[in-house]
User: Fold this.
Amino acid sequence: DAKTTQPNSMESNEEEPVHLPCNHSTISGTDYIHWYRQLPSQGPEYVIHGLTSNVNNRMASLAIAEDRKSSTLILHRATLRDAAVYYCIYDNQGGKLIFGQGTELSVKP
Amino acid sequence: GAGVSQTPSNKVTEKGKYVELRCDPISGHTALYWYRQSLGQGPEFLIYFQGTGAADDSGLPNDRFFAVRPEGSVSTLKIQRTERGDSAVYLCASSLAGAGAGELFFGEGSRLTVL
Assistant:
């Protein structure tokens, strides 16, 4: 299975940036890196994905290391609604995504 | 709405009974996925359809679990002779193609409780 390593939990203050790290040392050159998040009692929600270059969208930025063995999800200004479990995943299974334990982000007002 | 719809949202059954969970994907999405999630765990992959056929069913835990997608749209996950360990939230997701380069859209899930 595609294995990623993330911290179990992180804390942030509201209105401050958050950097969520992920290691994926066994990734291959054609595997996309995906980030999803899951709010309590909801299904996972897509955040962002990328291959090699850094990516930005309205929700977040994704910074991918040059060797692609790690990446960082950046929330530029955390809000209370960003409190969720964040999953870093890469697809080397021909179309399915294998979720790990994720990082539980708490945001303090 | 235009999202992935799952029914029922909650199902309570007794050990040994048969259960069906339904997923209505986003119109036009060819790929459909089933996951299950136990409390405090990440979603666990069960099966992935591309069109009508199961492209990968390696996550189904045993032969009590079966899923179909006869017309390439709605899918049904079937669980025979339910056990207490089957209690979980069953999540369905769909995407335009495979997940590799695209986005999965998840439903709210069906919470199954086996007494």
Observations:
- Chain B touches chain A at residues 4, 31, 33, 35, 41-45, 48, 50, 55-56, 59, 91, 93, 98-101, 103-109 (CB under 8 Å).
- The CA atoms of residues 52 and 114 of chain B lie 29 Å apart.
